[in-house]
Write a structure and sequence with these properties.
By secondary structure, the protein is of the alpha+beta class. It has a domain of 55 residues. Helix content is 33%, strand content 20%. Helix 1 packs antiparallel against helix 2. The chain is globular, with a radius of gyration of 13 Å.
């Protein structure tokens, strides 16, 4: 399975052609649902410590390798930022992460 984390803005039609992977996308403007191709994928809140730990581990690794100031800000203010992330998941992957539909 492929995991992708997006810490910036996105375009439209997110999820078109997405199979066998999961995307964690920061949604600071709370407009991600308008950009997701809901015919192919679903959008979810982070609802478990497993999901949160996977995401935080990826962000920490990215910050360590790149010295990203955005990643450092997210890590330092995790209690705020964790609620801004959404999971974009194709139906085939929903059960594996135990996601709940929004």
């Amino acid at each position: 399975m492929v995991l992708v984390v997006i810490l910036g803005s996105t375009g439209r039609n997110i999820g078109a052609g997405m199979t066998g992977g999961i995307a964690f996308i920061i949604d600071e403007n709370n407009d991600l649902s308008n950009k997701v191709n809901k015919e192919i994928v679903s959008i979810h809140q982070i609802t478990s410590s497993k999901q949160e730990n996977i995401l935080l581990e990826i962000i920490r690794e990215y910050q360590a390798k790149t010295n990203s100031s955005k990643a450092a800000k997210i890590i330092e203010n995790w209690s705020h930022f964790k609620s801004t992330f959404k999971l974009i998941v194709p139906p085939s992957e929903e059960e594996m992460l135990g996601v709940k539909k929004m």
